[in-house]
Amino acid sequence: MPLRTLPRVLGFAVAGILCTGTNLSAQIQAGSETQLNLNGSVSAGYSGASSNEGPDSHGLNFGGTGNLSGYFHSPQFLSFDVAPFFNQSRNNANFQSVADSSGVTASANVFGGSQFPGYFNFSKIYNSESTYSLPGAGNYATNGNSETFGVGWAVNLKNLPILSFGYQQGSSDYSLYGTQGESTDNFRTVFGNASYLWHHFQLSGGIRYSNSSSLFPQIEAGEPADRASSDTRTYTFSVSRSIVLDGTTWANFTRTTTDYDSPGLKSSETADVLSGGVTLRPTAKLTAQMTADYNDNLAGSIFQTVTGSGAVAPISIATTPSHSWGVLGSAQYSIVPGLFATGTVTHREQLFLGQTYDSTSLSGTMSYGHNVLGGQLSATANVSYSSYANYNGSMTGFLANVIYIRRFGAWGVSTSFGYTQNAENILIAYTTSGYTYSGSVNRRIGRLTLTGGANGSKSVLTGTNFPSYFAQGYTLGLSGRWLGAGAGYSKSSGAGLLTSGGIVTPPPGVPPPLLTTVLYGATSYSANVGSTPVRGLTINGTYLHSQSNTANGSLSSRNTTEQAYAYLTYRFRKVYFNAGYSRLLQGFSAADTIPTSVNAYYFGVSRWFKAF
After folding, report:
1. pLDDT at 369 over 70
2. Burial bucket for residue 148 (CB in 10 Å: 0-12, 13-18, 19+)
3. 442-454 per-position pLDDT tens digit
4. Is 293 in contact with 274 (CB distance < 8 Å)?
5. Residue 138 pLDDT grade (very low, low, confident, very high; cuts 50, 70, 90)
6. Phi-psi category of 59—alpha, beta or left, where left has phi over 0 and alpha has psi -120 to 50?
7. How far apart are CA 586 and CA 558, in angstroms?
8. 200: how many CB neighbours lie within 10 A of its CB?
9. pTM metric for this prediction
10. Residue 430 DSSP symbol
11. C-beta neighbour count of 137 within 10 angstroms
């Protein structure tokens, strides 16, 4: 038999076995101490793919999934789970990938019922699809490989400190469809923790080291690829104790050192943060709290927060001495069931970029939750007054949140609204104002259920010309016993941080003017449908279209992604007849390349089995 005809013969042979429904069970001799379970699926079919970046391909396709689980001696002694898969995509299975993906994931737990429990995990995946995110818009598709490995152990001996140790590492290399070159991500983490109860004092501490490096997607043609690497060492210690009046007192110390290196910046920062407080509950209705904190390097902490998010080349703000300290006292009183009143006094002083900021704030909050007019109402309102000694100014702030849920006849309605004015951030020199809203409705129409929803938000840095963050979205759906359909629309704009996984919003409370940001604006819409018109037959289809504009300094890009796929499966006993089609079109104008176009299809059969 000619060698080139062998795959075709094997393919038809496997397909024949699948369609006959022959029992694939197997018997193994694992011994009296071992319990094993094995199930999965095998498949055979015909697939093809075409792309404007390479030659067309088509031919027989063999694939499958498996799951081997079990234990030795007992589940508490050693339990494990191994799940391999081969040639799986959204065209022949539920894997959300244009290309055929293969790999394995595995995990194990050892000595779970003893004083020395441990764990292990591993995964290695080839040719898988992931996403490159943009806030409030459809994600862009990537393709690549990834690998992770982790191991951990604990020691729980009586009358001795409880110890835990662990190590985790991971790596990935991927390409963003429609751009040049490849991107990489690598990380390593080692940690150790200890806790001990000593004379009614709960003591705990830990050490954590993490290292990461990234090569970012090269969207701009001719520009060098962005790189960033960081090493972070964190030491923690805390102590707490129960005291009189049903109270608790505590103190925490954290030291964090970060070394960061990118083409635009190389820096090393260390920040020590000390905090503590006491909480008392003298009566069932009254709770009082007092806290204090000190940070010897405020700029360094902000720097570490930004680099910890994976952002590339943030502006170095830790060039001058800085610090922050503050005290807070508050009391909450339950007036009647569901109604609470809270009063707070805060004083904070900060030295940042050579300027001293001094703020004293008074605030009052009312919170209410109860059944109102046949529905459930939850509302919170806060009014604050802050005075600033450094420039003899003052500011009034306001915060409100309302949630209401009830039914109006056949309609179910849920709404929420939030408003913020002059809310202080990590830096008291900056405040934010904005709003959020959301609403949803549902109604039964015969055997179908109609649903709809809307949400939106806007946030602006008060007193600056920096762009505001804005997002809104709308959804509509119809579902029943045999039909489900939906559609969505979203729009967003703002300034974000560039990371290896996409553009992300800045960490909460960190003012964007201090960061290297990417301006963006995006719109996307989507539709999906699913149906089970007859027993055993399932049909699904999805479509997504997203357009965005991004600007980084003098560089700008117009970006487009369009994704569509359809999947059909028919089950006859343990045999499944599958067919699928996928299409991806994605491009970035700054990459100066033709948008990538990928089309793939598949039809074949698969069979589920439980071997033992």
Report:
1. yes
2. middle
3. 998 888 889 999 9
4. yes
5. low
6. left
7. 11
8. 9
9. 0.80
10. -
11. 24
Side-chain-facing half-sphere of 384: CA atoms under 13 Å: 24
Whole-angstrom distance, CA of residue 46 vs CA of residue 503: 38
Question: What is the pLDDT averaged over residues 542-567?
Answer: 85
Residue (of 556, 559, 576, 536) closest to 45 by Cα position = 576
- DSSP helix/strand/coil, 593: coil
- Band (372; pLDDT cuts 50, 70, 90): confident
Structure tokens at 148: 């992770």
Q: What single-letter amino acid sits at 214? A: S
pLDDT in tens, 379-388: 999 999 988 8
CB burial of 236-247 (b: ≥16 within 10 Å; e: otherwise) equals bebbbbeeeeeb
Cα(144)–Cα(452) distance, integer angstroms: 36
Contact 43, 605 (CB under 8 A): yes
561-577: average pLDDT:
89
Secondary structure element (H or E) that encloses residue 307, with its range: helix 298-308
pLDDT at residue 465 is higher than 90: no
> pLDDT tens digits for 299-337?
888 888 877 777 765 566 656 788 999 999 999 999 888
Q: What angle do CA 529, 535, 540 make, to 5 degrees?
A: 20
Give the pair of three-digit tokens for residue 356.
């001293």
H or E segment and range at residue 219 = none
Give me 111's structure tokens.
Answer: 């000595």
Q: Cα-flanking dihedrals φ and ψ of residue 425, to 5°?
A: -105, -165
Question: Over the chain, what is the mean pLDDT?
Answer: 84
State which H helix or E strand residue 19 sits in: helix 6-20
94 exposure class (CB count in 10 Å sphere: 0-12, 13-18, 19+): exposed
Contact criterion met (CB below 8 Å) for 46 and 604: yes
Burial class, 586, CB count within 10 angstroms (exposed 0-12 / middle 13-18 / buried 19+): buried
Q: Which two tokens stand for residue 223?
A: 């520009």
* Across 457-470, average pLDDT: 79
Helices (H), 26-104: none
Distances (CA, A) of 439 to 378, 450, 451, 488: 15, 14, 11, 14
SS3 221: coil
